[in-house]
Structures are given as C-alpha cells and as structure tokens.
Amino acid sequence: MDTSQLLKGVLDLAVLAVLRKEDGYGYDVLRRLRQGGLDGVGDASVYGTLRRLYNAGLLTSYVVPSEEGPHRKYYSLNEPGRERLVESGQTWKSFARALDDLLGEGA
Amino acid sequence: MNTQTNTEVKHYLDGMREALADLPAAEVAEIMDDAGAHVVEVAEEMGDEFSLAALIDRLGTPRAYAEELRAAAGYPSPTSTAADTGGDRLVFPARFALWSLVAGTVMAFGFAVTRGDALEVTVLVGLCAAAATLLVFRQKGLLTAITRLPETVAIRDALTKVLKSDLGKAFESLRVFQPVWWIGRALLIAAGGTLVYRPDLMFVLALALAALSLFAGPKARTDRRWLWISLPATGFALGVLLAVLSALVLRFDTYPISAPVSYTPSPPTRHNIYVFDKDGKPLTDVHLYDEEGRPLNATWYGCTGADRHDNRYPRPRVVHDERGCHEEPGVPFTVVMPTLPTTTTAPPSTVTQSPAPTTPIPSTTTPPTTATTTG
C-alpha cells in the first residue's frame, strides 16, 4: 500500500508529535520524521503542514539567526497545539487499534 | 556555496515563488523563509555534487515542490483562484499581451535588418508592445492568464519538445554563457541605435534600451514578465548583428568586382572636342593623338544608331528636339583668341586652351593629318 496516501491523513499528528519534546525548524522536523520511520514523507509536505498548523494557531514560531547559512525559523507547540496533539493522538490510537483488530487474524 | 550554486538555487527559489505568486505576499514570504532555507540547506549538503538537476531530482521541480506544499498547507490551488478572480475576464488582455510580444520581437528584428524601414508600422507595433509590457507588469494574474491561453500551451509544448531533443540539450549547455550574451546584446543595441541608424536622435534612447536589456536578461530567467523586454531586445540585437554581417559580406564581395572596373586604364574620352587655330577659326576633321602616338579614339553614336569609333573631331552634335533626332555639323560657339605673338607657348585663353604650337608628332605609326583646315 502506498504510504504517501496514509501519510496525508496523519502528517499533522506526526508533526505535532515530533515537536512535543523539542522545538524544531523545518528540516529538523523532516529529519525527525524520517528517523522515526516515515521515509516516504515529502519535504514540501512537511513545510506545508507546518504552515497550516501555524496558520491554525497550533504552533508558534521564532527565528534563530545562524552563523553559517540562512536564518532558521523554529516552530514550537503552544497550548492549543498540545491539546490538539492529545486529542488527535487518542483518535489515532483507537483507529489503529480497530484496524489492528480487523487485521488480527489475517496479517 | 559558490556563485554558480547560488544562482541555480536562486533560480529554483524564484520558480517556487512564482508558483505561489497568487498567495498573499506576506504568506509567500513566510513560506520562503523556511522552505527556501530548506532548499538552500539541501543544496549545501550536496556540496560538490550539487547541480540544478540533482536538486530537482531530490526535491522535484520548483513548481511541483510548490504544489505539494500548497496541498499540504491547504492553500487554494492556483487555477481555482484564477477562476475566482475572473480568469476569463483576462483572456483578451492576455491574448493582446502575448501577440504584442510576438509582433514586437519580429518587428524589432525587422526594423534592425531593414535599418529603419517601415517606421510607421514599427511605431504602431512598438506602442502595442509597450502597452502590453505595462499591462503585464501592472495587471495581477495576467501572467497566469497568459500561460493558460491555448496558444501559449502549444508554444510551450513545442519548446519543451525542442529542449528535450539533442539540439535543446546542446543549447541548454550554452546557458553558462548567457551573461556574455546579455552584455553582447546590450552592446549590439547600443551600436545599432547610435552608429547604424539615427545617430542624433537615438543616442540616448539606445543607451537606455541597452541598459534596460542588460537588466532584463537575468530578470527574465526567473520572472517571465521581463520577457516582454528581453525578447524584443533579442530580436533587435539579432537584427543588428545580421545587418552588420551582411554589410561586411557585401563589402568583401564587391571589392574584387569593382576594382578592375574602376582602374581599367583607358584614354580619357569626351563627348566632343573643338579645335581652333590661332585666329580663332574652328578646325574640323582633326585627328587627335596622345604623346605616345596612340589615336584618341572615342565612340560616337549617330541618330540612326550607327556608331563610329575613331579619333576624328569634332563630331557632329546629336540634337533631340521637336523635329526628332538630327545631327548638326559645325561648331556651336566661337572663341576670342588672345592677341599674342604666335611664337610663344600658348597662354590660357578665355574659353578654352588655345592649340599648342605645332610641334611634330613623335609617332610615325599613322600618317598624321596635322591640323588641316577644310572649311
């Protein structure tokens, strides 16, 4: 199954999740997602998702000047973001459990 | 990161910016802040292996990148916004702008090649092209409307096909020399305007246009609106180049032909010669020779079309008047000889050089008929 289709629905949750412990700039978030096993995630999708979560008021951002290369815009979870993470996380877990149960005998 | 990489990355980023151009400027700036930084970072990671192709391989084309980002961020897609803001309303201006660009480019080329012929048409087309340029720069969304015109799509498809061919690849590899061409183009425009055409009027105008074209070159690479300046400039410059080259070719071609013609040594021939003796009496049937004894032959055409080629002067005058063509013998004027001793060398007379003192003719080839009066 094409994971990119699956990712579309859960990328919000994944991005919120990797920002829970530590703030990160875009590339940072991308690396953490890939290290976490989501290889198929597209660069542009991550940046688009960050913009959407930011515009939805779930993230705050700040710019950190860097001595070499361009400035980096860091994103961090704010209170609504944390609430959304908990909420979406629960939805996902019950969804995943249900799917696991369905697959239980076959897979 | 070296400058080449810099330019290519900038090119990529500008492509992204263009694909997002319908979004609010502030939002585009935010996106470019982090997504742009990402592209730069990816490019830096590639190090020596960096190339535009590698970057596109890794991230997709700027347009594709922008599309993916757009979809993930939940922005409206560009086509729907164009439709919302009345894409159809822009079809006429879009078409006008596109065809003015084509006509302007062709006209600029033709104007340069013909060295300023058809001035009226040129001015008319030039005004259209200028209006189109203004429109493209001022009217938001017009560029999108132009890119969606069926003729634009057709042109772009054709261009893509050419670019994918070997010829296109060869052409693409010349891209490195593009800055050189921009400078050459500016020089050609300045030269065309100042030297070849109207030196007085066009001087300032040509310099301004040259500077503008210099500026438009790099701009047009990332911002299509600059094509409305860059393409006609290219047309004009190519026209100037062609005009200069053809002038050079013509010059080299005509030299070997004209040289023998203009330097053929032949005795000077006149239409007629009148000779007078020391008393001012006209001499007829005089045979003339030069200092080497060669007869001073000349061709004479009579009324009947018959011609004569000899050294006997004066010839009858051929007169065309209401009676038609007729030949008049005799001398049409009289001269007053200066009253001078007959032994001295001839002084200048009032009308014509008086005949030289009768020195023997140094030639023996022909029995000279020395000035004999026959009546």
TrEMBL record, chain A:
Limits of the Transcription regulator PadR N-terminal domain: 15-85
Pfam families hit by this protein: PadR
**Domain of life, per lineage:** Bacteria
The protein, known as = PadR family transcriptional regulator
Specify the species: Saccharothrix carnea
UniProtKB/TrEMBL annotation, chain B:
Q: Which UniProt keywords apply?
A: Membrane, Transmembrane, Transmembrane helix
Which species does the entry assign this protein to? Saccharothrix carnea
Pfam families referenced in this protein's UniProt entry, alphabetically = HAAS
* Region (Disordered), start-end ranges: 330-375
- Which ranges are annotated Low complexity under compositional bias? 331-375
This chain's protein is named: Uncharacterized protein
Transmembrane portions of the chain: 96-113, 119-137, 203-220, 227-250
Q: Lineage of the source organism?
A: Bacteria, Bacillati, Actinomycetota, Actinomycetes, Pseudonocardiales
